[in-house]
Design goal:
The complex is a heterodimer of chains A (539) and B (195).
Chain A (H helix, E strand, L loop, with lengths): L1 H5 L2 H25 L6 E6 L4 E9 L2 E5 H8 L2 E5 L2 E6 L2 E6 L4 E4 L2 E4 L5 E3 L2 E5 L2 H6 L7 E4 L4 E4 L6 E9 L2 E9 L4 E6 L2 E6 L11 E2 L10 E6 L4 E6 L3 E7 L4 E7 L20 E2 L37 E6 L18 H20 L2 E4 L9 H10 L4 E8 L9 E6 L3 H9 L2 E5 L5 E5 L11 H15 L5 E9 L2 H4 L5 E8 L3 H7 L2 H23 L5
Parallel strand pairs in A: 1-12, 23-24, 23-25, 25-30, 26-29
Antiparallel strand pairs in A: 1-2, 2-3, 3-10, 4-5, 5-6, 6-7, 7-8, 9-10, 11-12, 13-14, 14-21, 15-16, 15-22, 16-19, 17-18, 18-19, 20-21, 26-30, 27-28
Helix pairs in contact in A: 5-11, 8-11
Chain B lengths: L1 H33 L5 E5 L7 E14 L6 E11 L2 H13 L16 E7 L3 E6 L2 H4 L5 H18 L5 E6 L2 E2 L13 E2 L7
Parallel strand pairs in B: 5-6
Antiparallel strand pairs in B: 1-4, 2-3, 4-5, 6-7, 6-8
Classes of the chains: A alpha+beta (539), B alpha+beta (195).
Chain lengths: 539, 195
């Protein structure tokens, strides 16, 4: 201190700099830990309570503080020599810092990322709850990773998917719950309140919010979680009335006011709360209270087909972005020409978002990024996950630069292969519990022979939906002995979206407008296919 | 008396049959096993000079990319005469994969060479091509179908004894040439791709 007093101004300013730098480093460390600024929270839902634990992003991983988790789930923690022991009712889990493994009652379990020790706190990845804690916990732990939700115990927590189709002056909101859960709809001023008969709901992910240039005029502004069992639909100023049809999915038709809305956006007097509409019993009551009863009846509106198919008809869709990694596929002309592998991945990602967000089905991508995946691996991923539909995306090439348009392929087999498939039958095998059981034999490389009718049917639906949306080849539906389709044990098609060797098509394929239109066409075809399968139509 | 004569005649006939079997039948059978190809006939990519006849040609249909870019078109051309089905198959494939002058467009990548060719008793031809057919392939289902079926159709069209063709690359079976067309089994003639 004395030294500082006698030092020159130069030294003094240097010390000041060091002090500021040290403070910055400390501050930076504190910020780097991010423990005080969580990006989101993990919601623990149990019969008794509902609480949140802050999520700390570290790199691309999401971690939660172990002590918070321990407090919520009655775990005991004991740290010793860089190892954390987590105990629950006499059973133990051992964690080692920076090792993506957990020893659970003597068995090694892998975690998506390593537990981390920072500022005397331990952080564990979200899947610690399901992978490590789940096996020793005395009630079920169900991690809903996308929704950042951990369901503790056997609760009814359906996953809710929302789709909104604006149509002229009206719109249709389709809400699907998995598993099917009864719900009721009521109006509360400028909101619709949808209450589910459940312990909690897993809200739509991503949440629906009106976007784009016409967002301000949208009848539905947003769909969000109210209380744990309630969805709130925020209505826009053009909303006039609604009608809900029962069953699952729940379909709410929304009408808009015909004349331009008055300046006051919300009705001045509170609209009476409508009685609950039991959506499990159809048909709904014929009349509904309306905030604008003097309005003329709205003109008939052509609405999209109901998503009336059962969820069982279409649970999982496998999307295969062709090529990847060192296998770049076809190229546009030029040194830095567009690569097929990039186009296929971009469209596959759009489709995944669309199908998962709006249809509520699980979508598997055979590759999530730019990596090479063997053809057998692509179909085995779909087969092992029991996908209901397989769509392989590609872009075409030709020495003739003028060639353009999309082509939809379903599988064809050589005569010998088809004969092999036909001769395979069932085999009687002994079962573990005793007795015999007939097992249908499906040769791996001929699995598609059992699904050709449905593949052809889906190819036809795709053609119908892509027509007028994207350019089509002169012969837009073909069959060919394609390797990636041969082993698919479900209806399967391969779509060549266009020709990269045609400069105009190259520009088109990379455009946002084309990719959106193409994805919308595939989406609509998937919906039609699902409805057809649910109705028992197979060809 | 008559019975005795008949017995002698039968004995003479049996002796003659035995003699034919010992001196003619068995040697001929052994000779057959030793020389001609049995069920699988490998043919070297560098055949002996006597396998083809210089200067003598046959007319064969070769397949090129049609004007619409999605089909093959066949053109009749002179191809070296080959002595026997195997040698003729080799000459035909060599002509098919050779570079072509404008305005013809070959569906087979430039630089592809024939390494070997086999034909089984069932009429399945195995065409072993060099790796250029994969490394030089421009990709796309349309291109790949044209490449594969140019090879398949050129043999099944010009040689009636060949019913199907499987393409090998660098001596090995391959799944596909460029990620699309299944090459794990012999493929039959595809006339739908030919204009």
């Amino acid at each position: 201190m004395v030294d500082i007093e006698i030092c020159s101004l130069h030294v003094r300013s240097r010390l000041l700099f060091l002090t500021v730098t040290a403070s910055s480093v400390l501050l930076g460390l504190a910020v780097g830990l991010s423990s005080q600024t969580p990006a989101s929270a993990l919601t623990l839902v149990s019969k008794e309570t509902r609480r949140t634990i802050p999520i700390t992003p570290v790199g691309d991983q999401e971690l939660v503080p172990l002590d918070d988790l321990a407090q919520a789930l009655q775990l005991e923690l004991q740290e010793s020599l860089g190892t954390m022991t987590v105990s629950y009712k006499g059973k133990t889990i051992f964690l080692t810092a920076d090792q993506p493994l957990a020893q659970v009652t003597g068995r090694m379990v892998s975690l998506s990322s390593a537990p981390t020790r920072r500022a005397s706190r331990w952080y564990v990845p979200l899947d610690f709850t399901s992978r490590a804690l789940g096996p020793i916990y005395d009630v079920r732990l169900d991690l809903r990773r996308a929704a950042h939700m951990l369901v503790v115990g056997d609760l009814r927590v359906p996953r809710v998917a929302v789709r909104y189709d604006p149509l002229g002056g009206a719109g249709r909101l389709t809400i699907e719950s998995t598993p099917r859960t009864p719900s009721t709809v009521t109006q509360d001023r400028d909101r619709l309140v949808i209450r589910f008969d459940a312990d909690a709901i897993e809200p739509p992910n991503p949440p629906f919010r009106a976007a784009g240039a016409q967002a301000a005029d949208s009848i539905v502004q947003a769909v969000r979680l109210g209380d744990p069992t309630t969805l709130i639909v925020d209505l826009g100023r053009r909303f006039a009335r609604y009608s809900a049809s029962g069953g699952d999915p729940l379909v709410i038709d929304l009408d808009a006011v015909v004349a331009p809305p008055p300046t006051s956006t919300i009705p001045a007097t509170p609209a009476p709360t409508t009685p609950s509409i039991p959506t499990t019993s159809a048909p709904p009551p014929p009349t509904r209270p309306s905030p604008a009863p003097s309005l003329p009846p709205p003109p008939p509106i052509e609405l999209p087909p109901l998503l009336a198919a059962t969820s069982a008809a279409m649970r999982t869709v496998a999307i295969d972005p062709g090529h990847g990694g060192e296998d770049e596929g076809a190229h546009a002309f030029g040194v830095d020409g567009t690569k097929e592998k990039d186009i296929t991945l971009a469209v596959a990602r759009r489709l995944k978002t669309m199908l998962e967000g709006r249809l509520g089905v699980r979508v598997l991508l055979t590759r999530e990024d730019d990596r090479g995946v063997a053809l057998d691996r692509r179909t085995s991923l779909a087969n092992n996950n029991k996908a209901d539909l397989f769509i392989s995306l590609h872009a075409n090439a030709s020495p003739r630069r003028s060639l353009a348009g999309a082509t939809i392929y379903s599988a064809a087999f050589a005569t010998a292969a088809a004969r092999d498939a036909a001769t395979e039958g069932s085999e009687r095998v002994p079962t573990f519990a005793g007795g015999l059981r007939d097992i249908q034999l499906v040769p791996w490389d001929l699995a598609q022979t059992h699904h050709l009718d449905q593949s052809t049917m889906f190819a036809g639906m795709l053609l119908q939906q892509l027509t007028d949306r994207v350019p089509l080849a002169q012969t837009p539906v073909e069959t060919a002995p394609l390797r990636v389709l041969a082993s698919a044990n479900m209806p399967a098609v391969l779509v060549e979206m266009g020709y990269l060797t045609n400069p105009e098509q190259d520009r088109l394929l990379t455009s946002d407008a084309f990719q959106s239109a193409f994805a919308q066409g595939v989406y609509d075809a998937v919906v039609k296919f699902r409805d057809a399968i649910a109705a028992g139509i197979t060809r | 008396m008559k019975g005795r004569q008949a017995a002698i005649a039968v004995a003479v006939a049996l002796a003659a049959a035995l003699a034919w079997l010992v001196f003619v039948g068995v040697p001929r059978r052994y000779a057959n096993n030793a020389t001609p190809a049995p069920s699988f006939s490998p043919f070297s990519a560098a055949p002996s000079a006597s396998a083809s006849t210089p200067g003598r040609t046959i007319k064969a249909k070769l397949f090129y990319v049609a004007g619409d870019g999605t089909h093959l078109t066949s053109i009749e051309r002179d191809v070296n005469y080959g002595d026997g089905t195997l040698e003729q198959a080799r000459e035909i494939v060599a002509a098919q994969i050779a570079a072509v002058p404008d305005p013809l467009v070959s569906p087979v990548p430039e630089g592809t060479t024939l390494r070997a060719l086999f034909i089984t008793d069932h009429g399945d031809a195995y065409v072993d091509l060099s790796g250029s057919i994969m490394s030089g392939h421009p990709g796309g289902v349309t291109n790949e179908l044209l490449t594969v079926y140019a090879i398949v159709d050129v043999l099944t069209t010009n040689l009636p004894s060949v019913s199907a063709v499987q393409i090998l690359v660098d001596g090995k079976e391959v799944d596909t040439l460029a990620g699309h067309v299944d090459l794990r089994r012999p493929l039959e003639k595809n006339t739908a791709l030919v204009q």
